[in-house]
Amino acid sequence: MRTLKYNLSNSRNCFGQLKIVALLFTFLSFWGCTDLSESTYTFINPEDYYKTEADLENGLNSVYADFRTFTTNYKTLVALELLTEHAMPAHSSKDGVKNFNCWQGVNQSTTYNIQIWDSGYELINRCNVVLGRGDKVDMDEKKRNQIYGQARFFRAYTMFVLLRLYGGLAIPESYTSGLNGLEIPRKTASETYDYIVEDLKYCINNLPTRSQWGNGALYKASRGAAQALLGDVYLTRGCMDNYNTTYFQEAKKYLGDVISSGEYELLPDYKSMWYWFVEEAAKNTKESLLEIQFGATQVSALHCYFGINTKDESLGANMYARAGIAHKSYFSFQDEDVRKQCFLTEFTITGTTTRRYFEAEYKGFSGKGDGKWTSTSPGCVKFYDRTKSAYDTGGSKANYIAMRYSDVLLNYAEVENYLNGPTTDAYSKLEAVHNRSNSKPIATGLSKEAFDDAIFQERVWEFIGEGHLYYDELRTDRLGKNVYEYKMYMYENGYYNCQKLQFVPQRTFLWKIPQTSLDSNPALVQNPENVSDPRYPLN
């Protein structure tokens, strides 16, 4: 394992505005399958604290808690959806929803500063604290390696997110005393990939499988999650490196290991993954590889930001909206597709016979027509909790599924197609996902290019609204063309809050590093100016 030495008297690290670990360290109780409660202790000397296995477990629990914050930040999910053609801004103009939707201000370090860089490095920091302090704890070596494996998994996951948004990262190997020695330059993208790969290979060698963790710990990072993430890393790296078949072979290997493990399976009914339909039975199923836990004392607010601007007992917690599914994407679902039922298009006001329903002809303008729909588009029930307790408290108990088995199958089909074309093996993985929800069969005899399009379309139907499609479109070089065609159409046809497109992203698009982090670390170099794709003129 890489050597990490720390002096936690640091009040900020080179990435700006991390919490003061030595003076205000958050210890968290055991993260069960539904709840995570926390207690705060102050003025703790880390040299005195990390002495027992329980101390190290508490440090790891703080990693899990911060990972929940990082992955379920509504601003990140809203932005990632609005930057694709699959979402449109809702009636609120808060949080820059109109700017994200039209790609405005892409070369300003403030426009896309939604705390993901800072919060990502804070999470990396927590992982490094566990890794840097664990060697001093007297404990069973296998258990120590499991704790390290979990910390390294979350570090790798976080760095993979940041790498795809910002490019090569500055990688902290140690703490320094005070503000000295904070000049850490960025690694190249290739070096950052290598670092992530090394972390995940360690995880694969040291983490238990899902079944080995057992029912009381299904939320924990597992060997299968590490294999799936490494497969995704290699798939992305191969695509971004001119479709490098060496990386594709590695992707196929690790994705195949997940499939052959027998640890995961597609649920027979797509709807059974979502709390709206089956409540607690939706949590931590065999389709889930990694799931962010929410419950009665730790509730999610994602339902608010992908809601329909209303409050009614039949809908559970109070709703408002920042983004909604784009109309074209909603109508791309065939009527027989079960996944179309995951969007709220009508309800009856409790205690009345008054029905509210979505009317697409009004192009997102609410309160028009007989239905008087309260939002720009259908609501995404993937985040909803319609129980009476949610209505009373205002918070959703629905988990957020960060990784699931259908993603593994579609990634495998994609990489197999890159390597060998639409083989029987590739078809079987795509059909498993498709046939689970849609009775209309996939066309046979597709060309390599047409099969790749079919996989991408399946990803849209499977993952829309979950914050994944931005990465898929950027990786496969679809983002610019799709954004240009549909966002120009929405603006020209007068859809609500859809402004004129300001920029067309190329595959090389990178977000700007926040200025505060540049100020904190003089060795950081800002990303170059992004150039709008010249193939799609905006005049």
From TrEMBL:
A single Gene Ontology CC annotation of this entry is:
cell outer membrane
Annotated membrane-spanning segments are none
Identify the CDD domains for this entry: SusD (cd08977)
| Superkingdom of source | Bacteria
Q: Does the keyword Iron-sulfur apply?
A: no
Compartments it resides in: Cell outer membrane
- Whether Signal counts among this entry's keywords is yes
Residue ranges constituting the RagB/SusD domain according to the UniProt record: 368-528
Any Pfam family hit: SusD-like_3
SUPFAM superfamilies (UniProt xref): TPR-like
Tell me which residues make up the SusD-like N-terminal domain.
Answer: 51-235
Which UniProt keywords are present, listed alphabetically? Cell outer membrane, Membrane, Signal
Family membership, please give it. Answer: Belongs to the SusD family.
Name of the protein in its database record: RagB/SusD family nutrient uptake outer membrane protein
Q: State the organism of origin.
A: Bacteroides intestinalis
